[in-house]
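Operator note (shift B, R.M.): manual run for Glycosyl transferase requested after the automated queue skipped it. Running by hand, logging everything below so the morning shift can see what happened. Input copied straight from the record, untouched. If output looks odd, do not overwrite the archive copy; leave it for review.
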Amino acid sequence: MGDFYQNGIITTLHDLDQRPIEAIESELQGFSKQRPMGLILPSLYSELEGEALPAILGQIAQVPYLSEIVIGLDRADASQYGAALAFFDRLPQRHRVLWNDGPRLKALDAELQSHDLAPREMGKGRNVWYCMGYTLASGRTESVALHDCDITTYDRRLLARLIYPVANPRFNYEFCKGFYARVADGKINGRVSRLLVTPLLRALKKTLGDMEYLEYMDSFRYPLAGEFSFRRDVLTDIRIPSDWGLEIGVLSEMYRNYANNRLCQVDIAEVYDHKHQDLSAGDDSGGLSKMSIDIAKALFRKLATRGVTFNSETFRSLKATYYRIALDFVETYHNDAVMNGLSLDIHTEEKAVELFAENIMKAGEAFLDRPMERPFIPSWSRVTSAMPDVLDRLLDAVEQDHAELVGT
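Run finished. Output pasted below as returned.
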């Protein structure tokens, strides 16, 4: 049972009465006549072989209001692409699988690379960007949801609540961010959100002073949630990062492009769990260590575009301020866990805080050393300006890949 409190400057839509899924889906079916709805699923081929995605598809197959499902498939060869088509064939809704490693999409990507318009690194950001491009090219949907494929506690109620704010014609929201309690198996999870993002935002406020952007970012209850929904026109101008700064980058872009009253967040799940990343202490190339560096850099870059000047002294002060705030949060989360009969290891939490504090400095140094670094993928409006037929070619490539194996 959620509360009704409105924190920060973004509207929060709560789960006040556990409304039955049948009632929500009935409304969404009515909305779909005016605002056709779609779903984007960025996926690795390995996720098809796990336990989460088959269960997710079992739930999505029961959803009555979706006009199209767009699946981005990474790290798949030709035989695996064929297996993926068979795997997703259980979906009764119209769906297409983008074979990102196939020759047609790779050729298109190479041409975009030659114009300096393609994503610069592999990963979820690149996958999502091409799915967004296909959604624009298809033109079948007006309201679109996006969520990950590794959610082990998935229920179709999550999707219904996620897409409802941008699907309801009586609402004026262009973008909606999902949130939930990261509690599962008797533990509080979500270390990067709890122990890095929120303390870092509070530390930035202390170090730099009050700024609306920082207040905006601190309004989101789970800023790193991979679940969000949007109206189709959002896709044209949004620039998303290709690294682990994806979620922070999307929120920052929405702040840049829209008034706060066009944005909201919604409680989408009482219980939520997915694949966990290793802390990767001592290895900045992966796990939560790389994630924390990318996220910190994403915040620093955004603040720089708003006129903030950073130097080494700024980052040293920021690290010290963050460290004190984060340690206070460890005690807060521990007490919250104890009261709710959950476990939380203070030693492990403080080790994570120590790593994140060091990585704030590393992110700051990287930002100062490479001020012209461009992790953002160009917006589709820029890409179509340079290559007016690119969306038609993307659509054709996906359809040809599909027709070769399916025949229709």
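Quick read of the result: The two ends are 46 Å apart (CA to CA). The first helix runs from residue 21 to 31.
Leaving this for review. - R.M.
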